[in-house]
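Dear support,

Our group has been running a series of protein-ligand predictions, and this particular one with 5-hydroxymethyl-3,4-dihydroxypiperidine is the one our PI (initials K.S.) wants archived with full inputs and outputs. We had some confusion internally about which version of the output was final, so please treat the block below as the authoritative record. The input we submitted was:
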Amino acid sequence: MSVNGHFPPGFRFGAATAAYQIEGAVRADGRTPSIWDTFSHQPGRIAGGDTGDVACEHYDRYRDDVALMARLGLTAYRFSIGWPRVQPGGRGPANPKGLDFYRRLIDELLGAGIEPWATLYHWDLPQELEDAGGWPVRDTADRFADYAALVVDALGDRVPVWTTLNEPWCSAFLGYASGEHAPGRRDPAAAVRAAHHLLLGHGKAAAAIRAAQPGATVGVALNLYAVSAASGTAADADAARRIDGLANRIFLDPLLRGRYPDDVLADLARVTDLGHVRDGDLATVAAPLSLLGINYYSRYVVAAGPAAGPATCWPGSDNVRFVTVDGPVTAMDWAVDPHGLTETLCRVAREYPPVPLYVTENGAAYHDVVGPDGAVDDPDRVAYFDRHLRACLDAIAAGVPLRGYFAWSLLDNFEWSWGYGRRFGLVYVDYPTQRRIIKRSGHRYRAVIEHRRL
Ligand code: IFM
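Confirmed final output from the archive:
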């Protein structure tokens, strides 16, 4: 519990990043292309034609970046391991040079007293595995478990916390249904199969991690939304039920209860017969979680509506309208709704079996500029973090077992289909020079960490 508005002892204050968004060096030391390399080089996919080829040059600048983390006072750092960097092509032996990079990064973190949290999959599927069918095919789950074993075998002695997947919703539904993300496919049935095989891959990887490192701390990070109906009508309530089902419960229920929700299965039956779900799969998926990571950004307010078109990211539930509500939005046009974070944390704690919770991502994009004095003043982001950290304290006061918070993101970086045009960092990156400037929100976060209170 929080004491007098303080975060509890041992509460982790971190920041998060992902390999493809910051590393650059896409051809260095034996790395092979991922689906994001392929996708970002296809004309028209990414705003401004941006790619992750160079990104924040973190592959070469990781020492300076860890020094920045130390200046921010972070107690933990959540990063992802690039699959095609450590296992080129997604099969076969490890690439020692790729593993060495993560070993050096982890040692630098440990030397700075910062706890390394490694995520195994933040969307960079080796292109060869996509060519063999990608997440819609079952074999990819086995490939993922093999990759997990190989990484944990090499780095398990230094990494205290593993998360398997980051935001499987995005991998499945933006990747294979709407096609806004790599690999850019528009096949709703394939997206539903992908969601299942991601969950299966998580379960198999969790078992592989524990086999290599008994007693390992293993979790998964889901992007969860607060969902509300736009009105009290039964039709709008049903729209909210369906979006909550496809955004939240389709992952929470298998992971924490070992079954898909009946209403979600009924909605999905419009696009697939679910013949890909085999006996025993859900027991594998529901392997005990040491922690659940929640990535929270905003709330969906939804109403029954006409179908938005053939290629939405909501298979079987396309006839839903997303309603804009009055109030502040970020540069992503996402509503700022800190209460939704408290609501989401309390809901998971109330409705599911107990599991330690972490906010593994939370943050906001704004159009930051460097002022004439060389500083980056970002009052909107300062307010965003303050309000969401307050929401965490509210959840803790309500009894939620919330153990830590990771800001998204440490650095401005490659924001997927938005390219470099959206900045989420606590630290500003001047891309032409790669100069880093701690924003006012970074200084503010440092003060919160130091005093353990707002
Ligand atoms: O940048 C992404 C991150 O990769 C996954 N979660 C949401 C962030 C902001 O869109």
